[in-house]
Amino acid sequence: GGREGAAAQAAGRIATAQGATAPKRDGPEGTAAAGVAATGDEILDGDEEEEDEEEEEEEEEEEEESSEMSASDEDGSWIAWFCSLRGNEFFCEVDEDYIQDDFNLTGLNSLVPYYDYALDMVLDVEMPMEDSLTEEQQEIVESAAEMLYGLIHARYIVTNRGMHAMYEKYRGASFGRCPHVFCQGQPVLPVGLSDLPRNYTVNVFCPRCHGLFFPKSTRQANIDGAYFGTTFPHLYLMTHPDVIPAKPAQQYVPRVYGFRIHRSSLYYRNHEEQHGSGGGNDREHRRRGKNHRQLANR
């Protein structure tokens, strides 16, 4: 019993000593420790506030982006969206009135899969059966809409309104410029080598040298040439003769050490033989035609 009483008294003294010494932390060491603890709490609070602010900013940015997307979806049409895509700078916006005229779309239903769905997508018409389409079918419809618009575009740009829209792009060199040195940056016009889709990609035609080139941008170089057709640049120049530029004033002459290469050289002969058969036949036909005319005159 004596030991237990002594232990209890000792414990009481230790507790009293701890209670008496605790307030001494308000001194220099205690104040510093408290300051460090307070600063740490403030830093943690500051970090939490910054994180909260960043999260709020991210949420606001996401809301702004979503609102912009929804606004663009509401305000802009599918046609405007399609023409604004990178790589589609060659396309002009086709008037919806033109697309709504069935006469202008004659024969396209046999070329475009999911034609009705594609047409509704181009004209921003809600498709009642859209939910019943699979994801793969949705992708096909989207591709079909692009194809349908491209084929309509080829027909539209040979109309007066279409030519005017393309002229604005031509004037701003939106189709690029001729790489021929002596054409001096002549703006070019888009052209296809076939009126049927999936045959050739689009090329550009120079009105000055009549050369045909690949578009400068690889994005544009992958566009189907049928979306511009074989007629547009030539019909445009025929109906607007005032914009036809003169031929290049200079012509490149190959030289070796400053001397011209003679026309009888293999340099020219081998080059011309690439077209020799066709050229020879043409010359032969012209010669025979001339002989026949001479005999007829006799």
TrEMBL record:
Residues 1-22, 30-40 have a biased composition (Low complexity). It holds the Pfam family CK_II_beta. Residues 42-74 have a biased composition (Acidic residues). Signal peptide: none annotated. Tetramer of two alpha and two beta subunits. Belongs to the casein kinase 2 subunit beta family. GO terms for cellular component: cytoplasm; protein kinase CK2 complex. InterPro entries: Casein_kin_II_reg-sub_N, Casein_kinase_II_beta-like, Casein_kinase_II_reg-sub. Gene3D superfamilies: 2.20.25.20, protein kinase ck2 holoenzyme, chain C, domain 1. Residues 1-74, 270-298 are annotated as: Disordered. This is Casein kinase II subunit beta. Residues 285-298 have a biased composition (Basic residues). One of its GO terms (molecular function) is protein kinase regulator activity. SUPFAM superfamilies: Casein kinase II beta subunit.
